[in-house]
Structure formats: structure tokens, C-alpha cells
């Protein structure tokens, strides 16, 4: 049997290397791919990684190749991190300039020469703009856009005149949180603050649900918070992706307590900043904003106090002047009135003296006349009364007989009337007396059908039973 023709593996790899070099040695490519399996050896300034492409529908990997970066390639990665604030690490999409190489031992690889930071920044910004548009489209009740400004229900909430009770969302180990608390505690005005900490992880987009849950916890705590402060220190741009999350932005925009952010991002404004009532750059600035807000209220009170004091002094001075003028007027008017009344009293005194003398003289004259009359008048009155008595005696004698005769006539008349009106005489004329229930009655209502009655005539008493009863118009007795 003839031996088959064969080559060694090194020979095969040499052939592959020759083909790859002939095809790719003089060209480089700008490639869009995601970074995975990244490692970095600082001692050698050497990066190794895989570039992959994922299916847009299933997220499955449809292409993969190993890569490395060293020398100028590693320098370009360092520049990329400085520009974007984004570490070169797993799960980021990049635009890289690469060349293709084949090594007999390490196989097919790409060598990274350059990386475009603008592509990564643009990708992040596209995602952020898409999230903002989604917030506006899906939440018209509490998020609107006016020009380049986003107006939210949280922004429309009025801040209390004094911010004192604050709910703080931050990491338990955050230096920014310590800066915030230290700034508030050491404010130069001696303001007192009451802080409730709600600790959570404040970096990494995957932890967005934890931050939203803390907002829910604050709402359910049912405490009268003046504000909610979200705090984070500085970091890489990807560390802030949590604050560009849709659910976080939505929760802040509709939260019923004013939200103040101090996320520590000096370069850009996050979606959380845009949705919040007030956005500050750092935790320290967030604390300074609260202190300044309270100071404005204190300054307003002090200014109002100053105005009240000045106005009071002005009113007091004006009233004092008016009182002085009124006092002067009262003194002058009193003097004038006393002088006028003194003259009037003098005139009145003289008139009283003259009038008194005249009255005394007239009364004396009247008393003399009355005395004369009293001495003569009793005799005259006595004589008149004596004459009246004589006349009365005469009249009594003359009219006594006539009066007795007249009274006798009147008595005879009344006696005749009484006899005519006596029951016996009336019964003789055909009338009758009716008794019901042993009592005389003239009221038909007292007698009912079936009752026993007594009918008394002139010389007869009749016992009867009422069989019927009907109204009567009295026509038999009409004259």
C-alpha cells in the first residue's frame, strides 16, 4: 500500500499565514463590534479581548474573533477612556481600526490600532435621546418638552419655604453622601436638618430597579419630607447609565415630593437631572442649594422684619406728631372755651341776681295778695256752702215724693215683664221644656236617636224615646 501524501501542521499554518499576509497585510478595517473576555496586563500595557457581533433580534453571537492591543493600540485605548469617561471593558460597542493577522501558534487574531471615541459617545447619546423621547411619548400626563427643556410634574411642585426634613438616596459607602451630610451639619447659619437615609447601589444600569424601589419606600414611609435628595460621587460615564434609565426617569418625574439630584457628573446632564425638580452637579452643591434656599427664606423674614420696624417707627413718629398737634389744639381750645364760659357765667350770674330779685319781689306781692284773699275767702266759701245746703234740703223735700212715685211705676213694669217671662206662663202658650239625662237642654247635639227624654208641658210631663232627628228651619214661628 502506497503511503498517503501529508504535511506537518506547522507547514499548514505557514501556508495559512502566507495567504492571510498576502490578503490582509497591507489593509486595515474599521469594524463595529462588542467587546467581551477583556483582560489587561498593566505591567506590559497589553490588552486581550474578543470582538463579537450579536443578532439584533435574538442577541445570539453570529461572529467572533480574538484580538489584542499593545503599543499604539493600547495608547489609543487610554485616550478613548480619557475622552469618553468609559473604561474599555466588556459589553460596550466600539468602532475600532484593526488589521488581520495569523500566527502559527496563536491562530487568527486581529490587532487593534485605533478606536473612535465619538462612536461610543454617539451610541450612548442615541440611547439617551431614545429614552427621553419614550418618556415624553408614554407619559404625557406628567412629562412634556418645551423647546430643549423637559417639564415634569416634579418640577412643578413648590418647594417648602424651609427644607428641613430630607430623604437621602445614596450608597452606604458613598463619599459624596458624607460630603452632603457634612456640608449640611456644618452650615454657617446654624440650621438644623433631619436626614433619613435610604441606602442602595447607585451605579450600574442593572441596579435601576433598586433605586426605583427606594423611591417607593420613601413614598410608603408616609413622612412629611420637604425634599428627596439623590446623591452619588464621581465616576466613569458608564457608572452614570443608571441615571439615564427609563424607569428611574419616570419615577422621578412623577414623584410627589421635590427631588434634588447631586450625582457628581460634571460633564453631562443625566435624564434623572432633567426629570428632577432641581439638578446640582455634586452632593456638596446639593447641600449648598438647600442651605441657600433656607437662607433666602431667612433673609426674606429679616427684610420683612426690617420693613416692619421701619414702618412702625414711621407710624409711631407720625402718630406722635398728630398727638402733639392734637394736644396743642386741645390746650388752646380748652383755654378759649374756659374764657368763653367764664364770660358767659359772669353774664349769667348777673342775670340770675337780677332775676332772683324780681322773682322774690313778685312772689312777695303775690303772697300779700293771697294772704288778703285767704282772710276773706273762707267767709265767702262758708256762706256759699250754707246756701247750697239750704237749696239741697229744699230739692230733697220737693223731689222725694216724685222719685218714690217714679220708682213704684218702674217696679210695676218689671213685675209684669217677669210674670210674662215665667216658665209657667210660657208653657201655657204651647211651649215645652225638654230634659235629657236629667238635665234641661236646648242643644240638639245633646239628644241622639234612641235616647229617652222628658217633655214638660203646662200641666203634663211626657216620657218619650227619640226615634229620629232632623234639622229644622223654624218656619212655623216666623212672624
TrEMBL record:
GO terms for molecular function: exodeoxyribonuclease VII activity; nucleic acid binding. Its main location: cytoplasm. It holds the Pfam family Exonuc_VII_L. It catalyses: Exonucleolytic cleavage in either 5'- to 3'- or 3'- to 5'-direction to yield nucleoside 5'-phosphates. It is an enzyme of class 3 (hydrolase). It comes from the Bacteria. Keywords: Cytoplasm, Exonuclease, Hydrolase, Nuclease. Residues 8-115 form the OB-fold nucleic acid binding domain. InterPro entries: Exonuc_VII_L (IPR003753), Exonuc_VII_lsu_C (IPR020579), OB-fold_nuc-bd_dom (IPR025824). Its EC number is 3.1.11.6. One of its GO terms (cellular component) is cytoplasm. GO terms for biological process: DNA catabolic process. Belongs to the XseA family. This is Exodeoxyribonuclease 7 large subunit. The lineage of its organism: Bacteria, Pseudomonadati, Bacteroidota, Chitinophagia, Chitinophagales.
Amino acid at each position: 500500500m502506497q503511503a498517503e501524501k501529508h504535511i506537518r501542521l506547522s507547514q499548514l499554518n505557514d501556508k495559512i499565514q502566507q495567504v492571510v499576509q498576502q490578503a490582509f497585510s497591507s489593509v486595515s478595517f474599521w469594524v463595529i463590534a462588542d467587546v467581551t473576555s477583556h483582560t489587561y496586563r498593566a505591567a506590559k500595557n497589553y490588552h486581550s479581548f474578543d470582538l463579537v457581533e450579536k443578532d439584533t433580534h435574538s442577541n445570539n453571537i453570529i461572529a467572533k474573533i480574538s484580538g489584542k492591543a499593545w503599543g499604539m493600540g493600547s495608547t489609543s485605548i487610554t485616550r478613548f477612556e480619557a475622552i469618553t469617561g468609559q473604561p474599555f471593558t466588556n459589553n460596550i460597542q466600539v468602532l475600532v481600526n484593526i488589521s488581520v493577522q495569523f500566527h502559527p501558534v496563536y491562530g487568527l487574531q486581529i490587532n487593534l490600532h485605533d478606536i473612535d471615541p465619538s462612536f461610543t459617545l454617539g451610541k450612548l447619546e442615541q440611547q439617551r435621546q431614545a429614552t427621553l423621547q419614550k418618556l415624553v411619548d408614554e407619559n404625557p400626563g406628567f412629562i412634556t418638552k418645551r423647546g430643549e427643556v423637559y417639564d415634569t410634574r416634579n418640577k412643578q411642585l413648590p418647594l417648602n419655604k424651609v427644607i428641613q426634613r430630607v430623604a437621602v438616596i445614596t450608597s452606604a459607602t458613598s463619599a459624596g453622601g458624607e460630603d452632603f451630610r457634612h456640608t449640611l451639619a456644618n452650615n454657617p447659619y446654624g440650621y438644623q436638618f433631619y436626614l433619613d437615609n435610604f441606602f442602595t447601589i447607585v451605579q450600574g444600569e442593572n441596579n435601576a430597579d433598586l433605586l426605583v424601589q427606594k423611591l417607593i419606600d420613601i413614598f410608603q414611609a408616609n413622612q412629611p419630607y420637604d425634599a428627596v435628595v439623590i446623591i452619588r460621587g464621581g465616576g466613569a460615564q458608564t457608572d452614570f447609565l443608571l441615571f439615564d434609565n427609563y424607569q428611574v426617569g419616570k419615577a422621578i418625574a412623577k414623584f410627589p415630593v421635590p427631588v434634588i439630584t447631586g450625582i457628581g457628573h460634571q460633564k453631562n446632564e443625566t435624564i434623572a437631572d432633567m426629570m428632577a425638580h432641581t439638578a446640582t452637579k455634586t452632593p456638596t452643591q446639593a447641600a449648598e442649594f438647600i442651605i441657600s434656599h433656607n437662607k433666602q427664606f431667612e433673609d426674606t423674614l429679616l427684610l420683612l422684619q426690617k420693613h416692619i420696624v421701619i414702618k412702625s417707627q414711621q407710624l409711631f413718629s407720625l402718630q406722635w406728631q398728630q398727638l402733639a398737634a392734637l394736644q396743642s389744639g386741645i390746650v388752646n381750645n380748652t383755654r378759649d372755651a374756659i374764657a368763653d364760659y367764664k364770660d358767659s357765667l359772669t353774664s349769667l350770674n348777673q342775670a340770675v341776681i337780677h332775676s332772683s330779685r324780681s322773682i322774690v319781689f313778685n312772689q312777695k306781692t303775690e303772697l300779700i295778695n293771697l294772704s288778703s284773699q285767704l282772710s276773706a275767702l273762707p267767709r265767702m266759701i262758708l256762706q256759699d256752702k250754707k246756701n247750697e245746703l239750704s237749696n239741697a234740703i229744699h230739692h230733697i223735700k220737693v223731689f222725694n215724693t216724685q222719685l218714690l212715685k217714679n220708682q213704684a211705676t218702674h217696679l210695676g213694669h218689671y213685675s209684669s215683664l217677669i210674670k210674662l217671662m215665667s216658665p209657667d206662663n210660657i208653657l201655657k202658650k204651647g211651649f215645652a221644656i225638654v230634659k235629657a239625662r236629667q238635665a234641661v237642654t236646648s242643644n240638639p247635639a245633646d239628644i241622639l236617636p234612641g235616647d229617652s227624654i222628658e217633655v214638660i208641658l203646662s200641666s203634663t210631663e211626657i216620657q218619650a224615646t227619640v226615634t229620629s232627628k232632623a234639622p229644622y228651619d223654624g218656619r212655623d214661628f216666623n212672624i
